[in-house]
Every structure is written in structure tokens, then in C-alpha cells.
């Protein structure tokens, strides 16, 4: 069976959570499927029922993390609605994910591995990057006359970067997860900067 078998089952999630802990503690190379099964409190046979290999297990974690960010793909520009309100809403979709302990645990583990493993980095590249959603909104808002963004792709990277600079990267390197109050300040500040640079006065 493949790593996609019954992805919503309780045991599947137990294995994913255990693997995140194992990869964080031991690293991908030294991680053991035996220890994953022990941490998950399931048999090794059950682990292999869902995941054919350690690499498949790792890629499944990347997939779970990517799916958590997939909600952002549903955010679309609404003509006639103030663009600032829409940017705030979009920023909060990202912000809520960055306030999630399990999301950040998976992100920390994945990033630590891809930084030291070029093969994993190549396979993972792009799966967690949802910058295009930000760029698309800026592009359509420009076409609709609410913003003036000469290069929406670059501006999308800037927008995401403003949020992640305070709410993502510090946490990856050990800082506490951002509180809702802190995130509200980050969202407002990031949107204000985008409106200051690209908004139509």
C-alpha cells in the first residue's frame, strides 16, 4: 500500500505525529521506522501499511503540511470590496497557520531536513510555498484599479516575507509561537506597508 492509504485514520495521524518527533530529534538519516512505530504505539507492520519507506513517510509529512496551507488557495479577490480588508483577511489565513503548534512543529522539522539534504530539498521545493496566492490577489487588485503593483510576483514575496520575518523564522529557530495579539499587530503592520507602497491614494 502507499502512503496515501486512509490518510484520515487515527493511526495514520499517530504515525505522522511520531515521525515529526523522530525526525526532529534524530534527523532524517538517523531516524528509525522502529522508533517511529514505538513512539506512535503501533506495530511496525502498521507503519508500513501506510508508508512504504522512510522517504515516503517524510514526503507524507510535507504533504500534510502543504494541505494545511491549501486553504489559502480558496481566497479570491472580490471586486468592489476594499482591498485593504481583503489583504488583512489573506494575511490572517497565513497568520493562523503560523500560530498552530503542530504546523510549526512540522515546518521546523521539514526545514531542518531540507537544509542538509539536497535530494529532499528538491522534492519538497514549492510544496509549501503559497506566495502565488498573494501575488494573484495583488495582480487582480491592480487590474481592478485598487492597487498599483508593477511586479505582483515580487510584491507577493514581499508580503509573505513581512509576515514570516516576525511570525515564522524566529519560531523555526526556537522562539515561542506568536500569540494572537502579536499576530494582529504583524498583520496590520504588514498590510499597512503594502498599502503604503502599492495602494492607490
Automatic annotation (TrEMBL):
One MF term in the entry's GO annotations: transcription cis-regulatory region binding
Residues in HTH tetR-type domain copies: 9-69
Record feature DNA-binding region, as residue ranges: 32-51
Coiled-coil blocks: none
Keywords: DNA-binding, Transcription, Transcription regulation
InterPro entries tied to this protein: DNA-bd_HTH_TetR-type_CS, Homeodomain-like_sf, HTH-type_TetR-like_transc_reg, HTH_TetR, TetR_C_Proteobacteria
PANTHER family, sorted: HTH-TYPE TRANSCRIPTIONAL REGULATOR RUTR (PTHR30055), TRANSCRIPTIONAL REGULATOR TETR FAMILY (PTHR30055:SF224)
Name of protein: HTH-type transcriptional repressor NicS
Organism (species): Roseovarius albus
Lineage, uppermost ranks: Bacteria, Pseudomonadati, Pseudomonadota, Alphaproteobacteria, Rhodobacterales
